Amino acid sequence: MQAFYKKIYALFMGGYLIICVFSGNIKAQTTSINNLYEQTSEIAGRIIQYGEDINAIRNFYSPYNINKHGEDQYRTKVLNSPEQRKRLIEVNNDYLKELDQIQFSTLSIYGKVDYILLKKKINFELSDLKKEEEQYNQITKYISFANEIYSLEQKRRRGAFVDGEKVAADLNNILKELKTDSAAFKKISSLDMPIAKLTRNALLGLKGRLKGVYDFYNGYDPIFTWWVPVPYEALDKALTKYSDLVIRKGKINTTQKSDSSGIKGVPIGRQALVDQLQAEMIPYTPEELIQLANKEFAWCDKEMLKASQEMGYGNDWKKALEKVKNSYVPIGHQPELIVKLYNDAISFIKERDLITIPPLAEETWGMVMMSPERQMVNPFFTGGKEISISYPTNTMEEEDKLMSMRGNNPYFSRGTVQHELIPGHNLQYFMNSRYKAYRQDFTTPFAVEGWALYWELLLYDKGFAKTPEERVGMLFWRMHRCARIIFSLNYHLGNWTPQQCVNFLIDRVGHEKANAEGEVRRSFEGGYSPLYQVAYLLGGLQIMELKKEMVDSGKMTYKKFHDAVMKENLIPIEMVRATLANQALTKDFTTSWKFYDFGK
Q1: Residue range 455-504, pLDDT digits in tens
Q2: Total-model pTM
Q3: Whether 177 contacts 141, CB under 8 Å
Q4: Quick one: which of 263, 278, 329 has its CA closest to 487?
Q5: Structural domain containing residue 217
Q6: C-alpha distances out from residue 139 to 33, 191, 202, 569, Å
Q7: 104 and 160 co-located in one domain
Q8: Are 299 and 442 in the same domain?
Q9: CA torsion 167→168→173→178, rounded to 10°?
Q10: Interatomic CA distance for residues 334 and 394, integer angstroms
């Protein structure tokens, strides 16, 4: 009992003061505590405060602009100024000191996980800031005038009066310095891509900060308005011109290997991949992950051949795939197909009591049609709060219409509707806004996409695909996810060009040409992190392995397991595993979970 009273006393979590009236009903009190842990932990308050403190620094020290009506203040995220970077480093270090004062051993498993996640985030933020500072010190010679613009911005922040005539003179002097820097820069034969990119971002940041100053005073201060517009316009144009020069010199917008695809991106290299995998708590090298994907691909090949033989095509699985592709529904009927496939999946899941599905989640998922422009980078439907249906429109070329219809046929779509809706992304958004929402800054694509992909794996194992055509449809996507790991990692390792990636999807997976191009374009031009496409299958395999540990062993039912995973929000799966298993953790925890057996 003494330990229990001590546990209750320690529950000052996330701004909640827990007062329990002890009536002897320990079971009822324990239930109340467990319900509370669904929402918070002892570290939740610090996580919320940390996020708000960091946002406050970023907002205050970032460029400020205001429209002509005096409304809608907004700040543009650009390269940190030296002052901003200094404050971010100080605040992050302050929080590390705070964490160090906490008695880690007294925390619940939920508090320990939150502690580890917050500490990990802070350390990686500090690492990025340190790297940024080192790189910034390398480019100061190219932007010798930067501090003068930063100084003007400092005065603007607190509305200090400025002498318009002096500001105009300062801007003319800055312009002279810029021209000198630009002339020296032109003599450089080439610049390393990261440094060129940082210089470009610094120049765009200075341009934004200068605009913030100009917008604040111009039109409101008559002396400023008289003197400043002409030199401001000249300096603004010069900053743009200088930025364009840097882009050309650093070749920022070109790939390392030129090809005919027209798809542009920047391979990040092996070390950056290793660093990002470590940050995502994936303890494997890029080469090991390619090996993993090839092993999974081999399994898919065997399954695809079985289905092809059942359909009467022998070992020519591409003929079986062609039949499946040509099963597309008539124009205009795709939305009703989606609803039918959704109902099929939900009925299958409910019959087996696999997860709790809140009635409101079923009631409120939405549906929209995807624009032709969006389909260029998303050739298949996507989901979240709503499902966005990729299907031909009247403005598309005839060939593209057919490829879209074939690529979104009923058998392909059957395997992924639940991925986008319930229990996939739609249920994720529903539940994650209601349970431990403070963990949103720890979100990882290995949980976001891994959860949705896991359901594809699980439903296949449970016989959701009843006919060989349905198995072909689901296997196509599984092969696609294997291919994503292989082509994206090879691209970022510098081994493959975008065109090689496109060809791989066409030849190895059976993609339509336009869909393959859209997929590769999405991977390298769509604003995704380099590991995003890798995260689908890897995250799914992590959850499958965790399912084996918790469900197949008899420790949890499917429903309890799935409900528990949902309520931990979208954190690294290794931390979900630690929570469910009540794993012994240390405050200096590092990723170590080898979730894939290469020998099987």
Answers
A1: 999 999 999 999 999 999 999 999 999 999 999 999 999 999 999 999 99
A2: 0.86
A3: no
A4: 263
A5: 143-253
A6: 54, 11, 9, 40
A7: no
A8: yes
A9: 100
A10: 15
